[in-house]
Amino acid sequence: MTLRLTSQAQEDLDYWVSCDPKLADRIKALLERLEQGLDLPAMQRINLKFGEISLTSVKIAPEHRLVFEPSGEQILVHQCRFHY
């Protein structure tokens, strides 16, 4: 799978790298799992539907979510910080 981050997602990840390296490592591990096509923890995953767009949200901290859009062989990560 090909993994792409939006500019917002990249800013979010950069923020975590500088402010909370442990959480940044957790996010990077989740991104690696996505890239390898592995499943993410079901209890933390929520499928979201916005019109024609189908997004998935994964809880990374109590108030923060990793939001991504799986599309064929590509995964577009929209955010790594805050709630959807």
The helical percent reads 25-40%
CATH topology: YaeB-like fold
Characterize the main sheet.
5 strands, mixed
- How many β-strand stretches? 5
Oligomeric category = single chain
Relative strand content: 35-45%
Task: Label this structure with key terms.
single chain; 84 residues; alpha+beta; YaeB-like fold; five-stranded mixed β-sheet; 2 helices; 39% strand
Summarize the structure.
With 84 residues, this protein is α+β, with helices and mostly antiparallel strands. The protein is 33% helix and 39% strand. It has a five-stranded mixed beta sheet.
Q: What this model shows, in words?
A:
With 84 residues, this protein is of the alpha+beta class. The two termini are 24 Å apart. Helix 1 crosses helix 2. It has a 5-stranded mixed sheet with strand order 1-5-4-3-2. The model has no long low-confidence stretch (mean pLDDT 90). It has one domain: YaeB-like fold. It has 2 helices and 5 strands.
SSE topology:
Elements: E1 2-5, H1 7-19, H2 21-35, E2 45-50, E3 53-61, E4 64-71, E5 74-79
Parallel strand pairs: 1-5
Antiparallel strand pairs: 2-3, 3-4, 4-5
